[in-house]
Amino acid sequence: MTRADDVLIEREDHILIATLNRPETHNAMSHSSMIDALVAVCEEANSDASVRALVLTGAGKSFCAGGNIKDMLEKNDMFAGSPSDIEAAYKEGIQRIPLALWNVQVPVIAAVNGAAVGAGCDIAMMCDIRIASEKARFAESFVKLGIIPGDGGAWFLPRVIGPARAAQMSLTGAMIDARTALEWGMVSEVTTPEGMLTRALEMARDIAANPPLAVRKTKLLLRQSSALELPEMLSTCARIQADLHGTEDHKEALTAFMEKRPGHYLGR
After folding, report:
1. Position 2 in a domain
2. Which are the contacts of 11, defined by CB distance < 8 A and separation ≥ 6?
3. Residue 70: what pLDDT?
């Protein structure tokens, strides 16, 4: 069962703000209730057509510390039982998160306030954009615990920072700081701790100010770009573009541009 406060949800106009809220465990993600709560946020973002961006951050000093090491040691929660039990727990538990975040139709911005370790690092990589506090730290640290990125991190991380640096992080388990993450393209910007969420929300507002159908379709194309050959990609673009040319929001965007004013979009 999901605790009501596992993930705090706030709303600012068209922006959904989700805060991982187990600071006493550094927002560890091995508890089923925490997983359920994060998946529910993704489902809410998709079910509410008025949502145009999702910001994900963490309460306390950490963004997310990944799996709870105490639970691993004591064989609790998803780490309990036989190998087949644990395999099922991964599939029915934490592996729901990459699928849920991948399928969020609106842009997802990770506001990384502190340590993003193991599954926490991977959850940040599952987002579309990452803004980091100067206090943020990243580690693909599974190998240090004698395990692998069981949440799909070996799929996401190379797509963000390239195979060589992904191999370096995954095989050493070493921690990198926010400035290194910026240099490697893991994050878009590094801010002061006080300004991190403000900057993430500012970017979310910039996104939300655009025609929402175009934003969703642009995100879809970015996600499909690595899987499609160029001819198929161009065909997909032509089909989507033809549909968007017939929308009310496209007409409003053109009119607003000519009249030198902000557009007012309805998502149709």
Report:
1. no
2. 17
3. 82
- What CATH number is given to the structural domain containing 225? 1.10.12
CATH number at residue 110: 3.90.226.10
Are both 95 and 171 inside the same structural domain?
yes
Q: Give, rounded to a whole angstrom, the gap between the first and last alpha carbons of the chain.
A: 37
Are 199 and 158 in the same domain?
yes
Domain, as residue range, for 129? 7-208
Per-chain mean pLDDT for the chain = 94
Examine the domain organization and report whether 102 and 233 are in the same domain. no
Cβ within 8 Å of residue 96, ≥6 positions away? 35, 39
Both tokens of 80, joined, read 């309990």
pLDDT tens per residue, range 13-56:
999 999 999 999 999 987 889 999 999 999 999 999 999 999 99
Cβ neighbours, 10 Å, residue 55 = 24
Distance CA 213, CA 113 (A): 30
**Residue 208's closest CA among 14, 59, 8?**
14
What gap in Å lies between CA 26 and CA 29, rounded to an integer? 9
Structural domain includes residue 223: yes
- Could you give the CA distance from residue 193 to residue 157 in angstroms, rounded to a whole number? 24
> Is 268 a member of any domain?
no
DSSP-based helix, strand, coil % in the chain, nearest 5? 50, 15, 35
Provide the sign of the torsion angle of the four alpha carbons 114, 223, 29, 170, taken in this order: negative
135 and 250 assigned to the same domain: no
Contact between 128 and 142 under an 8 Å Cβ cutoff? The reply is no
User: 249 lies in a domain?
Assistant: yes
